[in-house]
Amino acid sequence: MSVNFHNSLPGVPHVESPFFARIFDESIAPETRRIAFELAVKGYAVLDFPDADFDQMAESVKQDLHSYYDFDGWRAEGHKAGISLRVQDAWAFDENVKRIACNEKILALLSQLYGRQAWPFQTLNFPVGTQQHFHTDSIHFSSSPERFMCGVWVAMEDIDETNGALVYFPGSHRWPIYTNEHIGKCIAELEGTKSQAIYEAMWRDLVEAHEAKPDYFHAKKGQALIWAANLMHGGTKQLDPQRTRWSQVTHYFFEDCAYYTPMMSDPFYGSIAFRTLKNIVTGEVIPNQVAGHRIPQRFIEATSPDQLQWKDEDNFDPALYLLANPDVAAAGVDPAHHYLQHGRKERRKLRP
């Protein structure tokens, strides 16, 4: 990076910055520049996982996690249904899963690519192909400022078209991030289980509108793929259900951000699904922040999707409030005054 360069957009990841050429100038190591350029242009980059013991770790993970999966059930039903098998957050009990997630060279590389310290917050271990509809992680894991999230996928065995190659759409990471309001949904008012299925028609339309062409990753054991938060990606159909397709995904956030789930949030309806997450490296909870300042806990609690009591405030009924809170009724205090002074903070019910 140029010594005299001042980055006036610190809230944009380096690899997606309009100042990319000045940040990744000739002073940067060639391999880092290659990875940065591919992330900037395509939204993903391939590299060899930087640990000489990877093969040994991969075999240990396969052995240790094998009993966690219902292979027979998957081959009989799950494969046809287009679902997968996974164990989330095996880092908590498997040292090799944690070691892969916390690889120091990966952390240093990601921190340089994004301009903020990277930290791992989730692992997923797959013994077969994901068979997932193409999607963007930005609806599941997002930050403010946006795009400070990435994934690192690493192959624990050779992968080809028969055991579930990855599919992605190069350059799609540069498309706008579309959330609930863009697809005309208020998630707080939707009935039933919420899933990414509400986005899938839009994603298909986007791919068609952009005339985006898929690319496929037939990985060799030990190859890793870094992908940007908004890259459209998924898993192809596993053609041979008798084969395995072992892999590990680690998701990373970056320091000094707010972390939340857009698919479960309606910010201008008063609902933000903030995430409270641990740094896998240290075990410490990382605070939600805005430009170096912690977001007040009372705001995080007040905007929780489970705390939408404010919706009924315009129709506040003192009699119903007293029925819902018999201790207030017994105290003989004014119900409206009590709610404004105490009930809101205590998240009291407005009606029985």
UniProtKB/TrEMBL annotation:
The keyword Oxidoreductase applies. GO terms for molecular function: 2-oxoglutarate-dependent dioxygenase activity; iron ion binding. Signal peptide: none annotated. PANTHER family: PHYTANOYL-COA DIOXYGENASE DOMAIN CONTAINING 1, PHYTANOYL-COA HYDROXYLASE. This is Phytanoyl-CoA dioxygenase family protein. InterPro entries: Phytyl_CoA_dOase-like (IPR008775). It comes from the Bacteria. Keywords: Dioxygenase, Oxidoreductase. The keyword Oxidoreductase applies.
